[in-house]
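batch_manifest entry 22 of 60
target: Galactokinase
source organism: Bacteroides coprosuis DSM 18011
requested by: lab member K.T.
priority: normal
notes from requester: please return tokens only, no post-processing; we will run our own comparison against the previous entry in this batch. if the run fails, retry once and flag.
--- input ---
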Amino acid sequence: MKKEEVRKHFIERFGDVKGFLYASPGRINLIGEHTDYNGGFVFPGAIDKGMVAEIRPNNTDKVRAYAIDLDEYAEFGLKEEDAPKESWARYIFGVCREMIKRNVEVKGFDTAFSGDVPLGAGMSSSAALESTYAFAINELFADSKIEKFELAKVGQATEHNYVGVKCGIMDQFASIFGKAGHLMRLDCRSLEHEYFPFNPKGYRLVLLDSVVKHELASSAYNKRRESCEAAVAAIQKKHPKVEFLRDCTMDMLKESKANISEEDFMRAEYVIEEIQRVIDVCDALEKGDYETVGQKMYETHHGMSKLYEVSCDELDYLNDCAKKCGVSGSRVMGGGFGGCTINLVKDELYDDFVKTTKEAYKEKYGHEPKVYDVVISDGARRLA
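--- output ---
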């Protein structure tokens, strides 16, 4: 939704005194899945889809919020016991509370917001919402401004403490720090980050949403974390300085193979190789070598499907379609068991790829995948 439409809804709801317009993006992750909790790297970028909110202080101790897309209204105070019942409003409330914990004197405000991040497609609409309000509250109410990384942590803490999702930092980090024409390599151990150029002239990034979500996700995710921890524990017997799989080489893993179950070995093999792939992709981007980037994406998909076993038939089929159509790179994006593939497609192959895949997928599964073109864009900002 464009900022003009958000402003129109804001004025209809709260009167014709304008507020301030803010926006934050959703994100993609080009490569680096299941590396975050292993002390490795992730490689996200902000996208040209996100949240837009108009916000105006109202000289009360109440927040009056209107969710345009849901056509729902909520009103709540700023004390811990004032938590709203509406799930979407808890994100805004949580951000307010986390900013208050950081000594920001948050006051009441009126707000309306809307987004065009597709829900359930793994592009982090919730992080976009959190980042919009963290950035805005920091500008409007903080006497001494909070640093950007702390704003990302505000979003993460909102998920942990007010939504009940124990997420990592990547989504909020990408939404706050996004930079047009660049991806960001985030070191999940040190939290240091570095920008890398992403200007794929002659290529397009497109997500194909399988429109399925298998129920295995949360229990399977925990099981895989346990596998990684078990492999580290076995390796530590000979290499006591090892803390995460990030610190391990394939030689170390093979050396400890007798003490690691076959399943745990496969999981660790994927993670060690995936951490190296992120570094390889960074090197390739610095040379403008997008074919190598694509090849590494295919390697990631194979690892997630066969070693980490977090893909599913639908995602494997979309990946196979990409190969048949000559697409440069394709892989499952996100935790797995459903959601999207992310595809790096040459311009001249794009139309045929989308048409062929939609038809083939519908014939096999009874419905078409959803198609989302994405462009790498800027992070949280004030619009007007």
